[in-house]
Specification:
Elements: E1 5-9, H1 17-26, E2 37-41, H2 43-53, E3 59-61, E4 77-81, H3 98-113, E5 117-122, H4 127-131, H5 138-145, E6 153-158, E7 161-165, H6 175-178, H7 181-197, E8 204-208, H8 222-236, E9 240-245, H9 247-250, H10 253-258, E10 261-264, H11 267-278, E11 283-287, E12 292-296, H12 313-324
Parallel strand pairs: 1-2, 1-5, 2-4, 3-4, 5-12, 7-10, 8-9, 8-10
Antiparallel strand pairs: 6-7, 6-11, 11-12
Helix pairs in contact: 7-8
């Protein structure tokens, strides 16, 4: 069973993730799952949230040493417990859950290091409370945790199209300080390797400009200084990369059919159209690590806690994605 287990870290306990997990298990969409799934989080809280939301799924607590000997049943949730003291079943997000979340990730990364698993889905976390401005996102947090020598890449993926923001969760005023030729090259190489090695597909990249219409009234624009030189180097490596292309006209049906991946210079430049087009049928992938990580493409959504109206499709897409790839 080495490397065949899919881990799911529950993430922020005061989020809608437990609800969408229950809905995913009840869904007909993941009945053909071949890989055993191990959830990591608080057993007591998960059962309490299930009872409150009125779901009925058998929850079985397991130990890491038992994983290889378990006869998995797709209708049951298998969970490794991580202790968490809580007063309310659903509460406001705060720093109180930080140690618990960190412990969950530590356990998952230990199982990956031991080669019990090589794939990870995590529930959403609070960037404000958990990451505390130390990391731009979970992508960078995990890279730091495993002391990765390679820089990670964030890819918002759908099987028909994907996008990558070269700079991730940054204020607009900081983008040009962090946008580099090296980062563009790193991200496209990581994505190209992922498509080639894991998906067995050839990839055509569209690189978007930073400035409106790829023009600037400054002496030297980012397009001329950073983006075009990066594209030139990538072409020399035999990668099919085109651009820079103006972002305002890129997301047409014709372009979405011709290209496989759009490389944007900042977060909202590519995530806004991607989420508009694919809604919940897209997932957040971290590439460039020693393992493949995915998360549903939404946050904790504290406003909808306990209301039982959240859409589970992004988690379902994440699970089915790992079930299809080798």
């Amino acid at each position: 069973m080495k490397n065949s287990v899919l881990l799911i870290v529950l993430g922020e306990p005061n989020s809608v993730f437990s609800e969408i997990l229950f809905k995913a298990y009840k869904s007909n969409s993941i009945k053909n799952i071949k890989k055993p799934i191990i959830v990591i989080g608080s057993v007591d809280l998960l059962r309490a949230q299930m009872k409150l939301l009125k779901y009925s799924i058998k929850v079985i607590q397991v130990e890491p040493s038992d994983i290889e000997n378990i006869k998995f049943n797709k209708k049951k949730i298998y969970i490794i417990n991580v202790d968490y003291k809580y007063k309310k079943i659903f509460d406001k997000i705060s720093d109180k859950s930080n140690l618990y979340i960190n412990n969950c990730f530590n356990l998952a990364l230990k199982l990956i290091k031991n080669k019990t698993a090589s794939e990870l889905i995590n529930g959403p976390i609070s960037k404000t409370h958990f990451l505390k401005k130390k990391y731009l996102g979970v992508t960078e947090y995990l890279s730091y945790k495993i002391k990765s020598k390679k820089k990670p890449t964030m890819l918002i993926y759908n099987s028909s199209f994907a996008v990558c923001p070269v700079t991730t969760h940054l204020p607009i005023s900081h983008i040009n300080k962090f946008l580099t030729k090296e980062k563009i090259i790193n991200d496209i190489i990581n994505i190209n390797d992922f498509y080639k090695l894991r998906l067995k597909k050839k990839t055509k990249f569209a690189v978007l400009g930073l400035n409106p219409h790829c023009e600037s009234n400054q002496k030297i624009s980012e397009e001329k200084k950073i983006i075009i030189p990066a594209i030139s180097k990538l072409k020399k490596r035999g990668i099919k990369v085109y651009g820079p292309i103006s972002a305002d006209t890129f997301f047409s049906k014709k372009n979405l059919e011709y290209y496989d991946v759009a490389i944007g210079m900042y977060h909202d430049q590519v995530l806004t159209p991607m989420k508009t087009i694919f809604n919940f049928n897209a997932i957040n992938l971290t590439l460039g690590l020693s393992f493949l990580r995915a998360s549903p493409d939404h946050g904790p959504n504290n406003i909808m806690l306990g209301k039982n109206i959240s859409n589970p499709q992004s988690l379902i897409y994440s699970i089915n994605f790992f079930n299809k790839i080798k």
